[in-house]
Amino acid sequence: MKHKIIISGGGTGGHIYPAISIANAIKKKHPDADILFVGALGRMEMEKVPQAGYKIIGLPVMGMQRKLSLKMFSFAWKLLQSLRKAGKIIRNFSPNVVVGVGGYASGPMLRKASRKGIPCLIQEQNSFPGITNKLLAKSVQTICVAYDGLEKWFPKEKIVFTGNPVRQDITNIKPKAPEAIEFFGLNPEKPVLLVVGGSLGAKTINLAMAKSHKKIQNAGIQVLWQFGKYGVKIAEEAISPADKHVKAFEFIYKMDYAFSVADVVISRAGAGTISELCLVQKPSVLIPSPNVAEDHQRKNAFALAEKDAAVMVEDNQAEEEMADVAIELINDKSRQEMYANNIKKFAKPEAANQIANEVLRLI
């Protein structure tokens, strides 16, 4: 029997790359599997998924509106359209199983699939689930999670602890360091601070970098700074040709190289990013975004910080504290070693493979 699988969700790299990792793991086990992605029109997945070699269909869905406004009518109309289109996709494709990875498109697809009796699996990445997954939990068969304690929100018998899938190219980064130093034009004698805020960029982190990159350079530290799509202007105004120790990029395509040379990482605390940091075992300064549903980034960061596996700096303190915290950590090898050893305990390198097994078990 040829397996037919829908993987639904996206919105950010934190949802898209794990989804692609799951698809790749399924393909490794069943090369003839027919995998269709369903995302949200106008979002990142509509570009990134085809680049990975998979077909994707977009739904007109948008994010749930939490405040009373005219946008609520638009949300309701687009949700209705998306449910209709999801039903049509299911009729035309006839999947054996539907997987939801989070993001706007997951809700309509899994709701329609479960009502038609098609087995469904949720991959919950965060330590605190969003509204959509809480609502879907009753009607799906399996819920793959990355943190302990989610039985507060999900039926215990449906939970499978797998961890979050990550990009496969970061699983063995140490041997890549010499090539990465040459690739980025770095001085092998100086420490490296990697600063990332996701593919779109993190405004707080970018403003903090613009304000403090000279202080970081003066401390003898080199910087790899991914400022993202929305950080172009901030970075252009901050960096001059004299700033030779700052390598600034809108997007770092060779993240395996960047991780391999980083002594310390400054990052947001999205679930996918944290899973990658655990796998590459990098001492990290986490600055959770306050602009996400259920404040889940703060909960993700705190889950590591309370175990001495990372440093957490609040978003509203980052401009003043971020650089000093990072410099202090780069100059303290024993603390770096402690954080690297502790964050390693959270790593789940076989997550994509385990989730693929759960998907195939449902079929």
Task: Please give a handful of descriptors for the protein shown.
seven-stranded parallel sheet; 14 helices; 15% strand; 2 domains; 13 strands; alpha/beta; Rossmann fold; globular
Verbal overview:
The protein is an alpha/beta fold and 363 residues long. It folds into 2 domains: 4-164 and 349-362, Glycogen Phosphorylase B (Rossmann fold), CATH 3.40.50; 169-344, Glycogen Phosphorylase B (Rossmann fold, 3-Layer(aba) Sandwich), CATH 3.40.50. Helices cover 44% and strands 15% of the residues. The chain is built from 14 helices and 13 strands. It has helices at residues 13-29, 45-51, 71-93, 106-115, 131-136, 177-184, 203-218, 232-238, 255-261, 271-280, 296-305, 318-330, 333-344, 351-362; strands at 4-8, 34-40, 55-59, 97-100, 120-124, 142-145, 159-161, 192-196, 222-226, 246-249, 264-267, 284-286, 311-312. The chain has a 7-stranded parallel β-sheet with strand order 3-2-1-4-5-6-7, sandwiched between helices. It has a 6-stranded parallel β-sheet with strand order 10-9-8-11-12-13, sandwiched between helices. Helix 3 crosses helix 4 (106-115), helix 6 (177-184) crosses helix 9 (255-261) and helix 7 crosses helix 12. The protein is globular and about 60 Å long.
